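We modelled the chain as a single entity of 898 amino acids. Its sequence is:
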Amino acid sequence: NDYLREWQYKTKDYLDLLLRQEGPPSNRTCSVCPKDGVYRCHGCMGEPLFCTHCCRMVHSCMPFHRISQWTGGFFEDTSLTKIGLEIHLGHQGKPCPEVTDDWYDTDDEGDNFAEGQWVPLVNDPRTTTVVDTSGVHSLMIRFCRCASALGPDMQLFEISLFPASFTSPKTAFTFAVLDDFLLDNLECGTSAMNYYSKLRRITSSVFLHLVPDQYRELMRVGRQWRQLKQLKWHGFGHEKQKPKAGELALFCPACPQPGVNVNLAERNVSDPAWLYSRSLVMDGNFKAEHMFPANPTDEVALTDGLGFMVGDGRYKLHLAKAQDIVHRLDCNNHRAVNQANASRHNLEATGIGSCACARHGCFVPHSMVDFQKGERQMNMDYALCQALGYNTDGIDWALTFYDINCQYHKHLHRRVEESPYLDLPWGMEVIPGIGLWHVHGHQDKCYVRYASNFITGAARIDGEIMETLWAPLNIISLSARGMSTPHRKECLDFQMNDCNFMKMIRMSKFLCRQFKEAVQGVRDSQHAFDRLSETADDDTLVKWEAEAAAAQDDRLENPSAMDIYEVKMTKAPTRKQQELHLLTRQVRWLAGEIHRGAATWLASAITLEEAQVALLIDVKKLGRRPTDAQKLAIARHRDRLQGQIDEFIRVTVTFLGDQLDEYDKLDLMTMMLDAAELDSAGSSSDDPDWLDDEDRYDTLVKFTPKTLVIPLPSNIGIERCAEWGVADLVLQEISLREGQANDALHAIRVNLADKAVLFRTTVRSAKSQARSTRAWARVHSVDKILHLNVQMYSKCRSQLVHLGADDLLVKLQPLEKADLKATTVVADSNARGQRNSTLAWFWSIDVQGDSTSNDWMNEFYRVHWLRTLALRDRWAEELLLVGREMIWTVDFFLHKSQ
């Protein structure tokens, strides 16, 4: 901004200088000789002036500079061809001695070419149209006619001009413009039509329609140039053999590839089996659609199956034979499964599916397939088999991460055995996993069974890197949608190859950063593990470690063996269960030891208290200017609640006796909620009702409908209850309050999960204002219920404080505002550092059971120790693996250099 402020004072000076450059200098002489300078070159530094002869001589090797001629009043666009510039081929720029005609002259006046409808281009059949980054040019090109001369097309190619035809080329493209077009297509997703439209505007800003249309030639020559570049880059210019499947594609330099960067015969005996493994992630992309081609029988494939897209012939044979069998799902109904039935009649391909290395995000050559009816298993089977067979000779361990691997992997081996076109490397053990973001959309059991945190050899893979790889590919998906089938595949191949290349050149920096993180991670995880192990006896640690080893050995055949990483305790009791338990126990208690029926009476009192909280929240949300309808609804609610309270008070004497009438302290108390509790409700900051209502920030909010405090032991006080002989009511209320807290926490967990899912599946995908409004309305509805349960929990906990339930309060902690964010639950489960931390305390309260039970404490400690052990092991694997990847990367580049 400081520069912009300074610019405001300099704008006029720069504008004056810009206008001054529109005209010639006062001393209008040639910059080379003392003659009159009439031509200005816009391609040379400083736009110098030249006379006709000097302009032609200086630009004999720069024929694509644009020039303009001084007319006496302004500079008018013209061309070098009009001043006699010719390009001679075959003799280092000199005329061919075999050319005897007087087709050209070199006088200073220039040739009298017939002008076209506009100035810069020459309308003459002898000229050749050359397309360059500086625009479209008409050039006089003289071919060599010696007996040993190459053909006209090869002569053009020899001077870095790619001919559009081969017999009598009249159009050519400079190598520079072809490179620029491919780079524009890679970085910006520029289509051939848009790119050529830009060149036409560069040629003429006004008469665009008069510039020759070479759009189709650009598309065709661009494909030819792309093929030549790939053959050159991969070393096939020096070999007579033709490339095989996937050989025109780069792969990850840090992944072990026998025969390329790894010699398995020299591996150390002490190396773990997982060290030389292939880690893959699989996914589908439904934005890369493709329409049916107009002429499918008249298409020419230049690199079919040589890059990342699989070859057409064998893949179609596989699809024709494979059967689409629907199996019963025992997990959640996922998007990929639903999309399997998607079919668009105007599309040849509804999307693409591919595999990439899970650690570094490099696409695997010859493993990308087209979808015909969504993401079906038959499509992904072919992609996976091709990926596992690429440079894996001798590798017997593979990790695969897929969004629905809990279902997909079950029958994988059977499907491979039944298909003659599918094959897995002999002896390779395929271990399934699910990415750390997608696994939270599965059932709870899938987390410990398929998350990379608990897979030996997975190191610190998150299994979600594929999602980041689709972004650059989606840039060209729209322009490739209507291409011919081979052209689209070539574009996708080139884009993926460039993606791998960019990963490759940044690999050293990436691995150095990973190594530093691994060293720190090993140190921190080892410290946390040692701190936990210090407090446990040796026999227990040996037992737990044996459980972890047995689970890892058995996980492939029996995924449920991994359930040892989950807490296995009974569910926390609800309030109804606590009330039922108290009523059942009354039968065994002696008369006089307990007030019979008190449990039901206390439960009804707690229900009334919850109704008071709900009414208070409704009153608070009215704001400053409520409508008559809102006032009437509150009045009716208040009236009903007052009637229920009056009825409760009449029964209270039965349990508390006449002492209640003499206790006037309750009359001085009011039902209150703290403003901090209101703010901790977890309501969305995007809700304008919660932002605009200034009353929300009052220090205390009083409850108005006859603010009577319900005479519960928690309000009377435990000392007063003991004096009145109703101390047993204190214990019963504590029991019921525990159930009430469990109910509230359960509702909070459910609503936070619902809110997170709504954000991920409804709010973010809303493309219109109407859908966005409806989506936010659903979020606010969930928010309202969440707020109510937070208030009920907070009130319940404050009452437990009054009851002196210190042991229970250790378990039931205060709710913090940060605990109530939906992003900590599902929406961002694989955020940075998430694997090293835990969810809020109340997410495990549902399976804790009695907090005073040693069984629960041991169980929770066991699971925490096992997970810390897994975290330590993954960091240790990461450190070892990154060290080897550094060596493999160097060996990969040495192999390529040879």
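As a brief sanity check on the tokenised model: The two ends are 52 Å apart (CA to CA). Residues 854-897 form the longest helix (44 residues).
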